[in-house]
């Protein structure tokens, strides 16, 4: 069929009602958002957005309502989609944006693709990876993996991906989303090592839309976290510790989930796997810890400093 591309859409969307099909690859995926309110009667008030790209650049794509339970889990980072009968809207200005792995990629930020059950009912097709042809010119998924030895030099709020061997998993804790609110964020602290430093990665992992992964993080698993944000204590605190926290677009993977993921081709991931082969499992198990109270960031050692 006749295809269009994202660059052409941005130039012509105002003058069209019907758009040609699109062939795109998913580069980033947000957590699922529930926006239901008691006074609004909606069956499936869900929303998720993705960053999709073709040879011309990258654009946001929003999945609405009952399409979320139907498609969210099948739409993975790296999945190729053929879309037809989609809508085009002006972009929502307050949305968070992931940091692209390819900094040269053009970003179309004025409009977004909207996938709905009706008006119009979108047709979504997932193209199996073995059927994807190089001549389609779809970009590969790129990552920004860092090692633990590189972390201390990175600025606050820098976006990166990490891989490590889990040595500590804290219990799940809750924090209120807002003061006096009934809604909570669920999170846990995790330590992971990669052999490049004596210090572990300290990871604050919020429950994303992957409960099956979040609940099964345990010591000795290979953990991959994408789109993490660096949190640097910007004060002159001598005990300052750098840690990483999840963003809206973070994805988490543990042993058993890595097969077929695009990051398995990354050089730093391959180096990490080589390092793990040189380690004694029995020695590492002795250093692992689960649960307990983990006060972090740590309070100062005296009340005066506090």
UniProtKB/TrEMBL annotation:
InterPro entries per record: NA-bd_OB-fold, RADX
Pfam family, one: RADX
One MF term in the entry's GO annotations: single-stranded DNA binding
Gene3D superfamilies, A to Z: Nucleic acid-binding proteins (2.40.50.140)
Protein name, UniProt field: RADX protein
Native source organism of the sequence: Edolisoma coerulescens
């Amino acid at each position: 069929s006749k295809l269009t591309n994202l660059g052409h859409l941005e130039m012509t969307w105002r003058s069209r009602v019907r758009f040609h099909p699109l062939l795109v690859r998913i580069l980033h995926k947000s957590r699922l958002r529930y926006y239901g309110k008691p006074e609004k009667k909606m069956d499936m008030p869900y929303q998720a957005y993705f960053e999709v790209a073709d040879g011309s650049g990258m654009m946001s794509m929003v999945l609405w309502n009952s399409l979320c339970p139907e498609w969210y889990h099948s739409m993975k980072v790296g999945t190729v989609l053929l879309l037809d009968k989609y809508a085009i809207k002006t972009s929502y200005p307050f949305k968070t944006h992931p940091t692209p792995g390819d900094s040269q990629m053009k970003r179309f930020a004025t409009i977004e693709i909207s996938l709905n059950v009706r008006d119009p009912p979108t047709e979504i097709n997932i193209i199996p990876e073995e059927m994807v042809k190089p001549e389609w010119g779809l970009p590969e998924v790129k990552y920004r993996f860092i090692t633990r030895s590189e972390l201390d030099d990175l600025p606050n709020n820098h976006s990166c991906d990490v891989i490590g061997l889990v040595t500590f998993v804290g219990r799940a804790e809750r924090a209120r989303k807002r003061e006096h609110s009934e809604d909570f964020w669920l999170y846990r602290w995790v330590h992971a090592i990669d052999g490049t430093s004596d210090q572990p990665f300290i990871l604050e992992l919020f429950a994303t839309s992957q409960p099956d992964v979040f609940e099964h993080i345990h010591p000795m698993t290979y953990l991959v976290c994408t789109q993490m944000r660096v949190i640097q204590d910007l004060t002159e605190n001598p005990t300052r510790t750098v840690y990483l926290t999840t963003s809206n677009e973070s994805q988490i993977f543990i042993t058993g989930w890595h097969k077929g993921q695009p990051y398995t081709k990354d050089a730093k991931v391959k180096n990490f796997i080589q390092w793990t082969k040189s380690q004694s499992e029995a020695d590492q198990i002795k250093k692992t810890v689960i649960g307990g109270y983990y006060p972090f960031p740590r309070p100062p050692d005296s009340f005066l400093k506090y």
